[in-house]
Amino acid sequence: MITLTGSGFAPDERVRVTFHGSYSADWDLRDVTASSEGGFVAEIKVPATYADDQQKSVEVRGLDSDKRADTPFTVTE
């Protein structure tokens, strides 16, 4: 499990979490709602089949504001 935290979104804005894998394999994992202060916490699970030591990233995007952030990570086991 990976726990994502974010801030700076509009109050109560829907935030989409998207996984960017190897070979352009992208998929939307879930939508979460930012708090009244614009922050969020979301847990995601990355399938074990992605434990290939290749860098991936998770992007979050505000569906109203189009604010974006991403973070790279590597699945090792």
Describe the structure.
This protein has about 80 residues and is mainly β. Helices cover about 0% and strands about 50% of the residues. It is built from no helices and six strands. The strands form two sheets. The chain has a four-stranded antiparallel sheet with strand order 3-2-5-6, with no helix packed on it. Strands 1-4 form a two-stranded antiparallel ribbon. It is elongated, with a radius of gyration of 13 Å. The N and C termini lie close together (about 10 Å). The model has no long low-confidence stretch (mean pLDDT about 85).
The SSE string, one letter per element, is: EEEEEE
Q: Work out the radius of gyration.
A: 13 Å
Instruction: Summarize model confidence as the mean pLDDT.
Output: 85
- State which percent range the strand residues make up: over 45%
Describe the main β-sheet briefly: 4 strands, antiparallel
Annotation field: number of helices:
0
Assign a percent range to the helix content.
under 10%
> What is the spatial order of strands in the main beta sheet?
3-2-5-6
Number of strands: 6
**Distance linking N and C termini:** 12 Å
SS content category: mainly beta
Indicate the low-confidence ranges by residue numbers.
none
Gross morphology: elongated
Feature tags:
77 residues; mainly beta; 0% helix
How is this structure best summarized?
By secondary structure, this protein is mainly beta. It has strands at about 1-5, 15-20, 25-35, 40-45, 55-60, 70-75.
